[in-house]
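RETRY 2/3 - previous attempt timed out on the joint model. Re-submitting the same 654-residue input unchanged.
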Amino acid sequence: MPVPGVSLGCDYNPEQWSPDVWREDVALMQQAGVGLVAVNIFGWSNLEPSPGKHHFDDLDEVLDLLHAGGIRVNLGTGTSSPPPWLSARHPEILPVAIDGTTRFPGGRQAWCPSSPVFRERALDLVERVAQRYGNHPALALWHVSNELGCHNALCYCENSAVAFRTWLRDRYQSIEALNDAWGTSFWSQRYGDWDEIQTPRLALSLRNPGQLVDFQRFSSDELLGHYRAETAILRRNSSAPVTTNFMVTAHIRNLDYWSWAPEMDIVANDHYLDHRLGNPTAELSFAADLTRGLAGGRPWMLMEQAAGAVNWQPHNLAKAPGEMIRNSLTHVARGADSVCFFQWRASAQGAEKFHSALLPHAGTDTTAWREVLRLSETLQRIGEVAGTAVVSDVALLFSWESWWSSEGEARPSQAVTYLGQVHAAHRALRELGVTVDVVSPDADLSGYRLVVVPGLYMVGDAAAERITEYTRDGGHLLVTYFSGIVDERDRVRLGGYPGAFREVLGVLSEEFAPMPPGDEVRLSNGATATLWTERLRLAGAASVASGPDGTPAITRNEHGDGTAWYVATELDPRGMRDLVRNVITAAGVKAVGPETDGSVEVIRRTGEGRSYLFVINHGTTPVVCPVAGYDLVTAEHITTVVGGGIAVIREEKA
Ligand code: GAL
Ligand code: ZN
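RETRY 2/3 succeeded.
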């Protein structure tokens, strides 16, 4: 980690303020124990106010002030938003949307990931920034661009079409192989030449799903290419670690971070509570577990979160007292060693002037500021947990490719979503007090007692074989519906569903039979089922629960030395939790925390002979700690945690 202990940090945008404010900022940062600040994230138009004319004095001064104040810097390369002169001179860098219309400057990130002009100008800036600050004593970390692909991930312009063709040639080598992969015999789509291929703009009817999934892959790779290009320059000029901020969150899905993560020196994520979702805190926990998976189980950074409300949802809810601290500690419990915020000082102008910050418009005589001080003190008190790792014996497989492809334009039911299934499985485990590692379908599963596979629609042969083998060798497997359906080309695995998992699950489904939203049926075990049923028959498995007509809906199969469960419907949360309780019991999985409605989280972090139990009580009633002991937060021996409270208990010997 760039800063020792469990550090507190934030984005800092001094260019929005005059130099006298910078001095006050540093003094207040010291008071708040801010150890790391991200600067120069949107610096380009200040650093290069006109083409080739550079102005570094302000940034020099800011870095020196921060350094003098003992605050480390997470230095942006400054390329996330091009200056107006660049788009005015080179409108060809502007992104083109799916309907073929241009997206204009005036906001941010208005650049095409495949634009050679943009790339050249951005890299020129990075070279200068890297040369100037690569050995600055305040520099702790490089921050490439910002949230790559937040707005511009999918560009449909001519430059992108050219780059897409190059990417496809690389992948398929011959046009015949591409035709085969995309199934272009369908609807007269056969290509004779690479130049005939376009980006998948809006069409009159359903578009080719093979093309769509490849366009997603291409788009993720294009931005990763941009990350690599900037990083190569940073490495030539500096030995500081390099990262960029991921967006592991429910509403952004365009980058396949499994391919990005190995290239980060430190994995960093931005997370904002999304009140458009029914259960935002559960989603936070899921995102944190997935970020830890991306970090390969090693500590990671929470690069951005909001101290209070955001400004970009329809109704921007303020946080309840203590909520910001509980959420911060939830990230730490799940492996973050650094808690950073967007941003330091609430903006007075610009599109984010109603976004919360560590220092609110109302100043320091505020509850919000006092909460910041309390968080800071808490993080200092628990500093010794830094470097430890989260313990889990359950893996949940997550795949961006399945997310993209399973939600195609034409599918059995528009009411079924990939994240819906993933969240439902994670939620059940979380409510049962079980910690889950969220890992790639290609991960090594051998160390886990239970592997959960929600809605893994697209799965390659190798991954499917590994999952089957894991079970054969004695593992426990839980698969939910619409899994194993297609290979990497989005080609249906023939012979009956769930294709790749038919054998391990011992079932064969002849037909999907989704239900209209609103309909529900009662299963033989009392659970309520909605959205999805299948004409499923047993092929070795036993029925655990069936629908009203006797069709199996939940099955269990002994496969080799292991056991594989299949859920062929959407269970209500209680029904899902009941099932998962049985599955974890059979698998010998031990819960770390008590079973609750999700209002209590108990997570263990261990390492080097040390062990800590995080108890986070999002609810209103006290909770008895699974282990009584010394709480780092209160510096007292405790047995319970009050409603809304948190504890970090130092356990006797790992
Ligand atoms: C992120 C971004 C920040 C800020 C924040 C507001 O997407 O990286 O610059 O805009 O959201 O929530
Ligand atoms: Zn483009």
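Residues 95-96, 112, 114, 155, 157, 159-160 surround zinc ion (ligand 2) (CB under 6 Å). Closing ticket.
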